[in-house]
Give the backbone structure.
Amino acid sequence: MPAWSIHQGDALAWSIHQGDALALLPAVPAGSVGLVLADPPYNSGGRTGAERAVQSARDKYVSGDARHDLADFAGDNRDQRSFGYWLTLVLGQGLCLARPGASCLVFCDWRQTAITSDALQAAGWTWRGIIPWRKPISRPQRDGFRRECEYILWGSYGVPIRHDTPIYLPGLVEGSQPRGRARRHITQKPVEVLRQLVRVCPEGGTVLDPFAGAGSSGVAALLEGRDFIGVEITEHYAAIARERLAATERTLERNVEAARC
């Protein structure tokens, strides 16, 4: 297992670890995590097993606005039952690392909402609700309804943490995927959406993302004053995540220095 090196800035710590979440998560100290923020491969979009087997993630999720090649990623071809069992294992491991009262937020689309809810609850999290994520730039459906929402399922480890200063978070978040050169990952989530989500973790607490992708959740965590641990199986994306978090750390340090002057 690779060493779990931590980058420690003036106030915040972060780390990105390349490998399979189920193999690497047991090395995280138990009871150290204030939020598990998971954006797993949706394993969605194929009508049959054969379609799922031949469609790559790029085939399913990349539109023409990317303007540059985006690396594919593995793990997006499971059938629904194997997806549910696998996600239960990952979220169960996350519960083992969480402090009492911690939250778990899991992204999914409309096809996988039911099985993702089952996995969250089977893993031991207390079911709390669903936060719609509205995407203003989204695909129209001929003769039907625009698919402009994905969903974030919320669970907690018992009674949710009471913050020292009460917080009131939105029941719906809104933001479009980055476009053009700003898009670094096939299924990249907007930092402005993720920043709202990580606020459920107490200030100074640790956000864990077992599917870190290009590191957007880590960027959001650092910007909101939280530590971050990310695991990403694809080497290409793990490298991008490290690059982006290091850049965010440098920006925050410059801001601190400027405030001291």
